[in-house]
Amino acid sequence: MTDDERQTLRRLERAILELLERRAPTATICPSDAARAVYEGDDDGWRELMEPARRAARRLVTAGEVEITQGGRPVEPAKARGPIRIRRVR
User: Fold this and answer.
1) Please, which residues bridge with residue 66 across strands?
2) What is the DSSP track for 14-65?
3) What gap in Å lies between CA 12 and CA 26, rounded to an integer?
4) pTM (two decimals)
5) pLDDT the model gives residue 61
6) Is residue 54 within 8 Å of 84, Cβ to Cβ?
7) CA 80 – CA 68 distance, rounded (Å)
C-alpha cells in the first residue's frame, strides 16, 4: 500500500466516524457517503473510492468502532457481499 493509499484510507475512516457522529445513534450510512465526502471533484470519481471506503469500514470494525450491517443485522465484514451499511457499535 502506498502512502497516498494509506492517507486516503485514514481520511475515509475519519469521514465514516464524522458522518455517524452527526446522525442519530441508531442511524446508518452507506460507504458511498464517505466516498463522496472525501472525493474532491464534481464528477462521479467518488466511485473509485467505494472499495477503499468498504476497506476503511472493515478496519473500523476491527477497531471496535463500527458495525457493518446487511438487512439491518450485523455481519462479519469478510462475509458481506453486495450493499452494506455502517453504524456505530451498539
Assistant:
1) 88
2) HHHHHHHHTS-TT-EE-HHHHHHHH--SSSSGGGGGHHHHHHHHHHHHHTTS
3) 20
4) 0.94
5) 98
6) yes
7) 8
* Local structure of 10: helix, strand or coil: helix
CA 33 to CA 10: how far, in whole Å? 15
Long-range Cβ pairs for the range 31-36 (8 Å, 24+): 31/56, 31/57, 31/84, 31/86, 34/86
Q: Side-chain half-sphere of 76: how many Cα atoms within 13 Å?
A: 2
Q: What grid cell was written down for 7?
A: 492517507
Residue 52 to residue 50: CA distance in whole angstroms: 6
Residue stretches of the chain with pLDDT short of 70:
none
pLDDT digits (tens, 9 = 90+) for 61-70: 999 999 999 9
